[in-house]
Amino acid sequence: MEISLAGLAAPIIKGIFLGGLYVVIALGLSLVFGVMKLINVAHGDLVILGSYLAWAIMGWLGIDPFLSLVVGVPLFFVLGFFVQKFIINRTFRISLDAALIACFGISIVVQSLLQIIWTPFNRSLLTDYRLVTFAVGPVTIQLRYLLNFIGGLAVMIAVREFLRRTYMGRAIGAASQNEPVAERMGINPNRVYSFAFAIAMACAAVAGVLQGLTFSFSPASGPPFLIISFGVIILGGLGSMAGTFIGGMIFGLTQTLGAYLSGGSMMIQMLAPYLLVFIILSVRPQGIFGR
Amino acid sequence: MSDTAVLSVEGVSKSFGGIHAIQNVTFEVRAGEVLGLMGPNGAGKTTLLNLIAGVYRPDSGRILFQGKNITRYPPHKICHVGIARTFQIPQPFTDLMVRDNLMVAAKYGNKRGVTLELDEILDLVDLLKQKDTTAGDLATVSLKRLELARALASNPTLILLDEVAAGSTEAELPRILDITKQVRKMGKTIILVEHVMKVMVEAVDRIVVIDKGEKIAEGTPGEVMEDEKVLAAYFG
Amino acid sequence: MKIPRLTTLAPIAVLVVLALFPLIGIPLSWLNYLFSFFIYLALANMWNLLAGYTGLICLCPHAFVGLAGYTLAIGTQVGMPFQVGLIAGAAVAAVFALVISYPVFRMKGIYFAIGTLVLPEVLKQWFNYWQPVGTAYQGGGAGYSVVGLAGFSLENKYWLALAIAAAAIFLVYIILRSKLGLGLTAIRDNENTAASSGVNIFRLKLISFLIAAFIMGIAGAAYFIHNPKIQPAGGFGISWLLLPLMATVIGGEGTEEGPIIGAAIVTFLRFLLADYGAWSLFIQGIILVVVVVALPQGIAGLLRQVGAYHLPQKLYQAAKARIHRT
After folding, report:
1. What pTM, to 2 d.p., does this model score?
2. Across the interface, which of B93, B103, B134 has its CB nearest the CB of C320?
3. In chain C, which residues have their Cβ closer than 8 Å to the Cβ of A95?
4. b/e for A44-59, b at 16 or more Cβ within 10 A?
């Protein structure tokens, strides 16, 4: 098939924009991992929960999914806070493995709940502007991909500012660097964890909306996003927000370029990111920017 | 490497990030001797032990053991050729009984075909009565002795002892010295890292002094204690 | 004549009784339940070997099960006898484990967990599109049927599963009392100390991993002999991970009797909830979370703590329930 430079422009731009979505999804995972050294294997499913929640609110109230975040974000924040407080914090006293298993249990609970309430069929967040495209030069861009990019930047900046400027944000930063020292400074680690998880969940709510606009989803859509987010944060290197951003771009590009270069093969599009994750894990787990 | 040397460290260097932990260190350890490794805090003594033990790989230089180039050997292979080590902060198998702690080393580390009596080793370090106690239940001081016992269980030729006397009371020091002498009588060669001066001076034949990653002195305890550079390193 | 001890006699007696079940008129539905129990038991034992004794939280049992099942199905489609397919399936699972072991064991801790999670997802996608043999209505998302099973009765399947479960238990029993078991326990306890004591960590983990892959494969293939249709979602479904994980956690990780207790409970639970579709998974997930928080040492751990039974002092076993020191 023909691969032209002009032809590459579309998938490249689309990949970069898609990266914004992956950044938002990965941010929640990154925050939890950075602070608690825990990979929340339920993360992908929680994002999909966010998508379903937005879908449900859209259905009941007929409002735009972004507006539904007014309900979604606080709801997820509170949910995250209590999940951390009553479940995950307790497992930390036992072992890190126990926390991992608990997260897996939550993943199963969420997936099956979604299936019970909303059946296994695919859904999408259908809005008027979902199908809007516009042209930049010879390239056609879909609006929703641009929204992903803007959303990614916005959420990233918001979280970064929160971590820098608020007391709890700095406490989270301190705890992720050095927990015993932070504890001696009067910071209650459990409380910090609860807030960190709550913020991660809030990010997941936003990610859910963006994701729902971009792809169709079903109750089983979670794990692929978990794997991609994990790939993003280790590619970018832990603890580096710029790294996470670039990592997201790379994963977006992998998918779009993979689809383009393989002539639209669905299989390649799905498998390319997984392969990338596996390679990263084997070759350089500390990522590009990692120490 | 000279005829009497069991271990030869030649021009070994190791950096972490921008920090030169060990710079171009060279020395030999003669068969059957007790070599002390001395230096102020952060000088790189444990790093040097870790380099010999295969935990780190030198950036340059090489390490020879009984004529074999062991520079790139991983820790388990180092144990197989006959070098055992203790950890500065004891790292026992906390869920295993004392005797099983030794059993691991005996079954996996001893490639020299001689079966050891584990009870004898336990007796040497005064842990025979606790051989069925779970390691996690031992007192911290006992853990240090367990470290030594475990190292001995693999029937090594060379033992790297990392601060085996630290945390012991005045009264316990003679026993530690005694144990060290016994180990030496078994024909083992020892590299001893120690801060407790009494042990260092009385147990060792020669001392190598490290400061800021470099070897600054080498000789008998008497010679080293008078060395200007050594005094400067310690007392500024 | 020396009379063997009770602890040796009892399991053999149980085995003989179980083997006789089909011949003494036990209802077919019971045989069905027991079939599942045996399969789950084998899987749980292997998961426990990895997680409870080697310290490897393996999140890829469904990769082994799915691969073995597909090997069996595709094999029988091209004329392979199912008995060969059974072994071939297990072998394929083991080879797969071998191939991925090099990259996967380079990953520590959490990285290993996610690395193993990626694999079944990849396989599921792959088999969604792959159609190596068969007509237009086979392969890909439609999956394959296992054929050539005529004459292999329910009783035969029952004995097959019983044999596999018994083999799994016996294998773990032998391993734990061997030099390998000591090494694995050492690795789980403290990898650095184990390495410096001469333990070749990579090699022992690999052996453990290969054994687990083979047995999980054979158990999975046996399942698909009884339920002779395999599709990507079912073959590589998350249930195959949830099952052994739940059984081990509920029963008691790092104990020998734990997986047996856990598998029994999980089997019972599954059949209790069999008609409830997604609710079944939902309730299992909740139970998993509750148990891991409230009863992390599992039932066996609890029983040991309260001294419900006296354990003969086994040489290479940690006698206490394993509760990590934080």
Report:
1. 0.85
2. B134
3. 296, 324, 326
4. bbbbbbbbbbbbebbe
